[in-house]
Amino acid sequence: MEPSLFLYNLLLETAGYAAARALISRSPGEQAFRKGRWGDYGDSGSRDARSGGPRIWLHAASVGELSGALPTLQGLTGAWPDAAVTLTVGTWQGYRSARARAPKSVAVLPFPLDFRWVLQKAFQRIRPDFYVALESEFWPNLASSLRESRVPSVLLNGRVTRRSLERYTLLKPLFRPIFQQFEWLAMHSEEDRLNAVELGARPERTVALGSSKYEGLASRVDQARVAHWRQVLRLPEDAVTVVGGSLRRSECTDLLDVFRELARTGPGLVGLFVPRHLERIPGMARWLEERGAPFQLLSRIESGVEARREAVVLVDRIGILFDLYGLGDLIFCGGTLEPIGGHNILEPAAWSKTVFYGPHTQKVRHEHLTLQTFGGSFEVRDARELLKAWRRWLNDRDGLRQAGKRAGDALQSMGGVVDRQIALIRGVLEENRRTSGAMSAF
Which run of H or of E encompasses 427? Predict the structure, then answer.
């Protein structure tokens, strides 16, 4: 065992074990999920392949990565209908979402923690012939176990931001073998590809392929859902709707402040404010109450307890932001005024809506550059500049709609990723068959 991996395991089995126990014990929901993180899957587990088909293990960390995993899963099950495909997810919310949204033929399991003895149990249950990681899932013991079991692996939708590069570089002896182990690293952008190479990935085995995360966005557009929410919220057809999505930290109140100032421009504005984390709702409510600003909670409107009568609605439930973007005229995507790095700024583009965001876009740099190239987004430096921009666009609604169409074109230009991913995987499997004589059924 390499010295860096030995030290990693020493730390993991001491402080890491206690921390993991505390973390997993706080996970809400099914006890089976908590046990599954420790490799105890009970009666659940991967499915048997038919006619000697491959056993493919695909891993998505959480809800965000799952949006890229689902189109890829569809491509895998279409390319290898006899395969036994297992999807693992590392968070409770992601796991619950995966069980509801993944193809029925796919087994969904909690992702095993990176302890060697936990991984051994997971390998015995899943028995993978091939492993697919998504985005930024770099686990030292998992990589070592794959290498020892001679299971080929690829990285799809790969991301290594400049900030991540700095962190990984500090532990390069530990992470270099992971980057060298992948048969291919299909990175999200050229910048991600170069960063992966700097961390040890073989240049000839890296490619900037884009992200399947956006492959399924257009297919999720459902005008019936927009009509549903328009009815629930009693929005007139001519109402101007502001949507603040995935708001983080100070953005939660900054967007409320921007809306209050904007609403003085004229009547008829409705604001829907969606924090990234629901625990922000009480603070947003207090902020409004302290200023004597009336508001309502979406949960009370949706349940029929009260009808919408106020201009400000705090969205106190998860899973509907994508549909709410379909209502939006002025849309802001959070994690960008705060130095978070941005969330999915292309979701509004699926509805042919332009999106506004702040300067911190390092996590969505490729999406930002694509939208900017097409003229489908607008970057602002701060909340004051956002207010100024929105005041201007209120007087040019036709221009705003044209910018939204360009955003839709930008999203369309990023398609075709899944087909390229499947071709890459097929090439790896065929190469492995030729060199080892194994897995001939692939």
Answer: helix 417-436
Asked whether the predicted pLDDT for residue 144 surpasses 80, the reply is yes
- Four-point Cα dihedral 168, 277, 337, 162, nearest 10: 10
Rg, the chain, Cα only: 23
Instruction: Report the share of the chain in percent with pLDDT over 90.
Output: 82
Would you list the domain boundaries of the chain?
Answer: 3-215+416-436, 223-412
Q: What is the distance between the alpha carbons of residues 296 and 310, in angstroms, rounded to a whole number?
A: 7
Residue 368's Cβ-count burial label (10 Å; 0-12, 13-18, 19+) is buried
Is 3-215+416-436 a domain of CATH 3.40.50.11720?
Answer: yes
Q: Report helix, strand or coil for 92.
A: helix
By the 8 A CB rule, do 297 and 314 touch?
yes
DSSP 237-291: TT-EEEEEEEE-TTHHHHHHHHHHHHHTT-S-EEEEEEESSGGGHHHHHHHHHHT
Helix (H) or strand (E) holding 59: strand 55-60
Q: Where are the beta strands (DSSP E) in 114-226?
A: 130-134, 153-158, 184-187, 206-208
Find residue 400's DSSP bridge partners. none
**Residue closest to 357 by CA, chosen among 417, 291, 407:** 407
Beta-bridge partners for 242: 271, 330
- Better-predicted residue by pLDDT, 215 or 380: 380
Q: How many CB atoms lie within 10 A of CB 78?
A: 11
Are the C-beta atoms of 178 and 215 separated by less than 8 Å? no
* Distance between CA atoms of residues 90 and 69, nearest Å: 13
Q: What is the mean pLDDT of the chain?
A: 93
pLDDT, position 39? 94
Architecture of domain 223-412: 3-Layer(aba) Sandwich (3.40)
Between CA 285 and CA 121 the distance in angstroms is 47
